Amino acid sequence: MRLDEILRDISARVQDFLNAGWQEVRIVTDHGWLLLPGGLPRTDLPKVLTNVKWGRCAEIKGGSQTDLPTYGWFWNPDVRIAVARGIHVFVAGTEYAHGGLTLQECLVPELAVTGGTSTDTGVRIAAVEWIGLRCRVDVEGSALECTVDIRLHAADAGSSITSKPKDAEEGRASLIVPDDTLEGQEAFVVLRDAEGRLLHQMKTIVGG
Question: Which of 38, 45, 89, 207 is most buried, by the most CB atoms less than 10 A from its CB?
Answer without folding.
Answer: 89
